[in-house]
Amino acid sequence: MAIFNNRLTAEQYKEYFSDIHPPFETRDAALVEANRCLFCYDAPCTKSCPTGINVPKFIKQITTDNIKGSAHTILSSNIMGGGCSKVCPVEKLCEGACVFNLMDEEAIPIAKLQRYSTEKAIAEKWPLFTRKASIGKKVAIVGAGPAGLSCAHTLSREGVDVTIFEKENKGGGLMTFGIAAYKVTPEFCADEVNYILSLGGIDVKYNHELGKDISLEQLLKDFDAVFLGFGVGIARQLQIRGEELSGVVDAIGFIYAIRTKGYPSVAVGDKVAVIGLGMTAIDAATQAKRLGAKEVTLIYRRTQEEMPCTEEELNIAKLDGCEIIWLASPKKLIGNNGKLTQLECSKMILGEPDASGRRSPVATNETIVLDVDMVIKAAGQIPFENLIGETQLNNAGGKIVIDIESATNITGVFAGGDCVNGGKEVVDAVQAGKDGAASIMRFISFSRKGAK
Ligand SMILES: Cc1cc2nc3c(=O)[nH]c(=O)nc-3n(C[C@H](O)[C@H](O)[C@H](O)COP(=O)(O)OP(=O)(O)OC[C@H]3O[C@@H](n4cnc5c(N)ncnc54)[C@H](O)[C@@H]3O)c2cc1C
Asked: Which atom of ligand 1 is nearest to the CA of 432?
C-alpha cells in the first residue's frame, strides 16, 4: 500500500474528470424537452428553487428560441444560474418537484435546459444587465464566493460601488476550489466569475484576507455597509487517536489540491477510507477513485435513510466503484512508523432521534478494522471560529447569527451563505447574497451617513 501521484495517463485523467452531465447535443433535443413542460400555473419547480427562478417562463422562452430572454429570466433570479445548472442537487429541488414525477414519467430536465441558455449567455458574454448610475454609496464584501458575488451583482445593479475582499487569488469560492471538477470545470468557474464582474462597479481585491490584511473595524470606517460571505473552514476533526498520522487528510484540502494543482500532482492512496456521507464526502471519494485509488470505502455512522447526500450522489459514488459501510464510526487510526495502516471503527446501532430529527447512532462493543493507507475526513466543516470571535460578531458555535434582515449584531454589518448556515448549497448562498443586498439597500437608503 502506498500514497503517490501521477497514477494515470493524461487521457485517463481527461476522461475520468470529464463532464458528468453533458449538455444537449442539438437545439432540437433541447426543444423536444422544453416542449414537454406543462407550464404549471402554480409551478412547484419555481417554489422549490431557493432563488425562485421562474422555470416555466424560461422554458417557454426556449421553445420560441428566445435564448437571451430565457437566460435573462434565469440570471435575474440567480446570477450563478449557469453554475447552479451544473451543481445543484436538482433531484431534491426543481426536478424533484416536477409534476411528471407524480405521473411516473421522467421529470423535465430543468437543469439541462437552464444550462442550455446560461452557457450561451456566459460563453458569448451577453450583456443582459445594466448598472444604474452610481448612487454615491460604497459597500465592502468579504469573500468572492456565491454569496459575495450574488450580493455584489445585486448591489452594483442598483448603482452601489462595491469592493470585494477575497483571500484567494481567484473568485468563485467553493465553486472554484471545492466542487468536483466533473461537475463544473475550473474554466467555466472563471468564465462565470468574469461574466458577473463584467457588469462593472465591482472591484475585487484578491489576496486580501479579513483578520490578516484588513479588519472589520477599518471596513466599517471606509464603507457605508459590509457584507460577510466568507464561508466555512476546514473539515471537522475526528478527535480520535492517530489523527496526526501521515495519510490522514482533510477533504477540503484534498479537493482544493485537485482544483489548484492539477490531477497528476495530487497523491492518493491505494486503499482510501472517506469519513462522512455528505456532498463533500461523495466528491472526495469519487475523485480519489478517479485519481487512481484501488479501493475507496465511505464510512457512515447512520443508515441510508438518514444520509445527508442525495440518492443520485450516492449512485455516482457506487458507479465509480466506491464501497459504503453503513452504521460504522471511526474509533482509532492505527499506524506504523508515523504512517497510517489501519482504521478501526465501532459498529453502531440507531437510538432515539437527536436534535436534527434523525435517529442518533450509538456505539456497540463490536469493531471492524480496515487496512487503509489514506483516510479523508469529510464529516462536516468547522466555521472560522477565531475570525468570528475576533470580530465580536454574535455567533452560534462559530456560525454568524443574523436577523431576518440579514443583519448581524454590529450595525452596518450583514452576512449570508455558508458562514451563517454552516454549509448548505450554492443556490442557498446565492439567495443569501440577494437577501443581504436587499437589506443593505434599505440600510444605506435610510442611513443618515452621507456618501464617503
Ligand atoms: C467539497 C464540496 C462539494 C460541494 N458540492 C456542492 C455541489 O455539488 N452543489 C452545491 O450546490 N453545493 C456544493 N457544495 C456547497 C457549496 O459549495 C457552498 O454551499 C457554497 O459555495 C457557499 O457559498 P459561500 O459564498 O457562502 O461560501 P464559499 O463558497 O466558501 O466562499 C467564501 C469565499 O470567502 C473567501 N474567504 C474566506 N475567508 C476569508 C477571509 N478571512 N477574508 C477574505 N476572504 C475570505 C473564500 O476564499 C471564498 O472565496 C459543496 C461544498 C464542498 C465543500
From this structure: 26
pLDDT (mean) for 375-398: 89
Amino acid identity of residue 403, one-letter, is D
Q: Is the pLDDT of residue 448 over 60?
A: no
| Protein fold of 138-233+382-446 | FAD/NAD(P)-binding domain (3.50.50)
Going by alpha carbons, the residue nearest to atom 19 of ligand 1 is: 425
**C-alpha 433 – ligand 1 centre gap (Å):** 13
Predicted confidence (pLDDT) at residue 452 exceeds the cutoff of 50: no
The amino acid occupying position 108 is I
* Domain extent listing, the chain: 35-123, 138-233+382-446, 248-377
Residue 239, SS3?
coil
Strand partners of residue 413: 226
Say if residues 1 and 371 touch (Cβ distance below 8 Å).
Answer: yes
For 248-377, which CATH superfamily applies?
A: FAD/NAD(P)-binding domain (3.50.50.60)
Backbone dihedral region for residue 302 (phi beyond 0: left; psi -120 to 50: alpha; all else: beta)? beta
Residues 6+ apart with CB under 8 A from 48: 93, 94, 96, 97
Q: Whole-angstrom Cα distance, residue 176 to residue 189?
A: 6
Q: Whose CA is nearest to atom 37 of ligand 1?
A: 230
Is the distance from CB of 164 to CB of 141 less than 8 angstroms? Answer: yes
